[in-house]
Each structure stands twice: as C-alpha cells, then as structure tokens.
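anyone else get weird line breaks when pasting these?? whatever heres mine. first is seq + tokens for prot A
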Amino acid sequence: MAFRRPHDPQADDGTDALVDGDRALRRGTAQAALRHRDFRLVWSGTFMSNVGTWMQNVLLGQFAYGLTKDPGYVGLLYFAQLGPLLFLGQIGGVIADMVNRRRYLITMQVLQLVLSFGLAGLAAIDHPSTTAIFACVLAIGIVNALGAPAMGAILPTLVPREDLPGAVSLQSVQMNLSRVIGPAIGAPLYAFFGAAPVFAINAGTYLFAVAGLALARFDARNPNPVEGRPIEKLLSGFHIARRDPLIRRVLITMLVFSFFSLMFVGLMPEIAAANLGIKEKSQTYGYLYAAFGLGAALGAISVGTYLAGHSKPVIMRRALFAFAFLLTAFALVRDVTLAFPTVAMLGFAYFMVITCLSQVLQAHLENAVRGRIMALWIMSFGGTVPLGVLVGGYLVKGHLWGLPIGPISITAVLIGGAVVALVLVWYCDLISVGAPPLDAP
C-alpha cells in the first residue's frame, strides 16, 4: 500500500482552522479541530468502528449468558475483552514509539476485522465451543490492547497543537456516543437475527477505520525511536512518568479514580436492581444506561466548546468535587424518576474529569514518548476499571478472593468511591506540578 508524504497540519490547515466561512472559530475548540481534514478522516472512521465494537461488546454478554447460563463465563469474557489493556498496554506503547504508526494501526485494525469475522462464524454454529469463543474474544482483546496506544499517539499529528484540546474532547465524545449508539443499533438486530450477524457487522466497521488511516496525511514516524534492551524499552514509560511530576500526578489520579470511584460503571445492573427495582434486561435499564452515556458525551463536548480556553486543571478539580456529590446522590436515590437526571449529571461530571486530565496530559507530552505514556494512561483508565469492578462485586457478595468479609451494600461501596474522589480533589492540583493555569490561546 502506498502512503502519501507526511503532512504538517499546522502548515496546511492552520488558517482554515481559524475561519469557517465568515465565522471566526476559537482555537482549541471541537469545531476548530473538525476543520482539519485528516482529523475528520481518522475521527469519523474510528467512530464508525467503535460503534460496531460497542454493538459487539454489550451484546456479547447476553450471547454468552444465553449460551451457558453461567455468570462466571460472562465475567470471563468481560475480562478477555478489557483485561489485556492492563497487562499489554505498555508493550503496545513501546511498539507505537518504534514503528511506522500508520502501518501498525492498519495492521491491528485488519487483524481485529478478521478475528471478529471468526467470532461471527463461531456464533453461527448451533452449539459453538465456549473455549473457542473465549480464545477468539481474548485474541481480539490482545490486538486492541496492543494497538490502542498508537491510536492515542497519532492524535496530535492530525491537528495543530493549539487545537489539540478540541480534538481530545471529541475523542471523549466519540467514546461515549459509540457506547450509546452501538447497543441501540445492535439490540434490535440481535433480537431479530441473532448474534452472528451483529458480530459480522462489527467486523465490517473496521474498514471505516482502515480507510480513515490510509487516506489521512500525517507523520507516522517517531523521530526518536526507543533504544536499549527489551526490558529497558518495556520499563522506559514508567521511568519517564516517574521523573515528570505532572505526568506522574495525572496518571496516579487516573489510576486511583478508576479503581475506587468508577466501580459503578460495571456494577450498574446491581445498582439498578438493588436500589431502584429495575431489571437488568428491561427497557428501563437500557434507558438508564443511555442517560449516563449521553451525560458523559455532553460533559466531554462541553470541555471542547463552551469551556474551551478555560483552565482545565481548575475545571477538573471542580468537576471531581461535583462527581463526588453526584455519586453520593446516585447511591442514595431510590426513586426511578430522580435516578435518570442524577445519573446523567454523574456522567457529565465523570467525563469532564476524564477529558480535562487527558487534555492536560496530551498537551504536555512530546511526540517521541507519546506512545509509551498513552499506554500508561490506557492501563490506568481502561485496564484498571475492570479490576475495581471485580473487587466491588466481591465486596457486595460478601467475600474477597475466598475470604469471608461480610456483605457490603452497593450503596456503601459507591459512597466509598465518592470519598476517594473528594480526597483526589485535594491531591490533583496539577498547576502546582507544572500544568499551565490557562490554555494557550
């Protein structure tokens, strides 16, 4: 496959990013980021692909439970999907800082396409092997974990540095809208046609990501590739984070927040059943989760539009305080009508925190180390949440890895996460460790 020469988004698109027809655009906003052709190509392609991914991710649990009636197997598949992010993300980050990122990402997308078609083929069999399904899902999770840091690393090469905040907020919007749109499309397809066609459609959506990556013009090379022995390369990201106080504080904040305060994301069915009397398979539960996802998407887009140009460290601490208050309210609410606006506002505050942290981190990083540090970000976010959910589930059931501890109510678990979030409001003073108090104009 022939690729075009590296593209300098600032040189070619800088003027266009400031003017949209007769209307001036503020630098750093989501609108300004969307003015860049190459960002639009990659963002829209990966958006379509992620919609398909969430069609598969959400319905895979239903398919697995219908196949086995075993909640343990469902949990095993959930870990196979997301667990590799925790254990293999740093390897993917090292690779992302050593190879041509475009070719590497296209290879990863094609591999996921092939494996997803394989999963569709397994699902089409009358009595598929549960072992084969687990192996296929694990392989998809591994490839995703190895490719995710490179996807995060190319983001700054698609827009000028001053429009990076808007691009980061749009990535967060994409993450949440795909979680809402994917299941909304996949659920009726699953009801009418079964799992195999849904998994096949997901496989086809990877072509959108491949097309966006192939058509966009960006510098896919790292000017300072990673050197040293294999173990030194693997640990280099940790060394960089340890030496840089801002990177270290962002990652520790994200790690603690993900593990202790985000248990509610995976325990939402238990919260709905125990506190609100909502059945997991009911339409009301689907609306509740959609309200959360929509709130999260609005929180992310607000950072890149209305709040563009405001201090992200300050917004992040205020949003974290609001998150602690709203998580407590969601833990205590027992009325379904009140639960909907509460969970929507909780999602709004949640992703304001995530988006602001991501913007501060991305703006601080040099391109030569971006893959390895984004791998640590992915590990602290996507890889840690499943562990927190696992521990939270054991606490609610009354035992932790075989040790009886007495059941803890889901309400107490959520309030504990809110207390940790309040402590983080004090800890995550990013301005004191080098974050600029205001975004660059």
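and prot B, same format (seq, then tokens)
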Amino acid sequence: MQHFKLDSLKDSLINWGLFVVLSLIWGSSFLLMKIGLHSFTPYEVAAIRILSAGIVLTPFALNALRQLTTPQIGLIVLSGFIGSFIPAFLFCMAETQLDSGLTGMLNSLTPLFAVIIGTVFFQMKTGLKQVLGILIGLVGLYFLVFPSGVPQLFHLGYISLILLATVLYAINANLVGRRLKAFSPLHIASVAFVLHIPLCVLVLLITGFFAKPLTNHDYLYSELAGSVLGMIGTAFASVLFYRLVKRAGALFASMVTYGIPFIAAGWGWVYGEHITLLQMGCLGIILSGVYLAKPASK
C-alpha cells in the first residue's frame, strides 16, 4: 500500500510538473512574438516560428509519412494550415499594436469558441450549463475589449485578428477530434509543420528576410526569439502536451488553458506592459465561463 501511494504521488508530481512547464512555455510565447517583432515583420516572425518547428519535427514526420495515405496527408495539411499556420500570422500581426499580456488573455477564449463551433457545426451536445458558460465568457470578453463598457474602434481591428485566430484554433480542435482522432497527435503535428516549410521559406524570400543584416546583434536577438518560439513553444511543447494527455487524460491536459493567460500577463508586466485589475477581473470571468462551458469528461 505504501509503495502504491508513493507511485501515485510520483505520477501526480510529474503530471503537475508537465502542467507548470507547459503553462510557462505557452504563456511565454506571446512575449517571444513581441521580441521577434523588434527587428522583423510579423510575416517573418510567424514564418520563422513555423519553419523552426518543422525542422525540429522532421524526424517524426518522415516516419509518419510512410504510414499515411495521400487523402490523410491532405487532411492533416489542412488541419495544420487552419490550426497553426494562419493563426501564427494573425497573432504576430495583432501584436504589432497589442500588448502580449492582453493577447494571452484573449487566447483563453479558444475553448469557449470550440464549444460554440462544436455545437453549431459538429452536433456537439450542450446543456444549460454550457450555454450559461458561453454567455459568461462573452460578457468577460466584452469588458476586456471595451473597458469603459462603451464600444470603441481603437485597436478593435487587431483584437479581431486574435479572435479570428482563436476561432480557427477551435475549428481545428473539432476537426482533429472528429476526423483525425485515430492518428497519433505527434504525427499530425509533425506532418503539418514539415509540409509547411516550403511555404515559410517562400514568405521569407518575398519579404526580403535573407537580405537583412541577420548577424547584427538586434537581428540575432529577434531571430533567437522566433526560433525558440518555434522549437520550444511549438514543437517541444506539443510533445509535452501529448505526453501529458497520455499520462493524465485530455481533461487534465486541457486545464493548461487556465495557466497560460496568467503567465502571459505576468511576462507582460515584467516587460513594462500595463496590466490593470479590470483586465485580470475580465480574465477571471472568461475562465469561469470556459470552466462552465467545457464538455463533461467521458
């Protein structure tokens, strides 16, 4: 019995350790984007991110491609385009005007949109609790975007980019859950990122990335931020997340959603961004809505 308790405690500590590490990594991603934007355009930062992730995941993709059919590969590429490629560009474009802390808070809406889209388009069953959660989350979103309570157009276009990205994340979550559930998540991620490498290189060529003084200190700093964002914040974090899902289940792993925005806000504060009590209150309202709206575990 004592041995069983020790093993259980060990498993719990490992699971919570993975949870904390993932929250730190993904919560730091928004600041890394901001640093990358010091020297590069948002298109270049996003391309560096996806390219770096693709390079790191290449060994996994080579193995996966041998086991997949052409239609399956096509579906995975579509999933990667919707769930990673386009959102990476949208986030970087938005962060040219928005604080990284606010961006991280808005990102917490992804599970809420996943429930809405799953209900409307994928026949997900929802009850009064989920509807109430959605309404609460949307109230939090409203006052986060419009602190005075009155709609204003300032930065609304850039906020819309983040909201579009979270909607795309939500669409992809439902797509993966219903059409790609039988495949290894690591295979899905690796194939999606690797097959987008040529497109990333094309973006960098078009933007004149390779003609810039890339060995200059400031450029190297931004390059490093973009590369870490891809290699650690995307590739390595994906492996950790899939490992956490296998160890503790999808419900526990999905709770990372609650840690990310607080890490993002904390980094934003350290970086000199203005984080208000109203914003944190709105974040609390949104996360309360996310908690209520999440589907019951099976």
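btw re prot B: The chain has a mean pLDDT of 86. The chain has one domain: 20-293.
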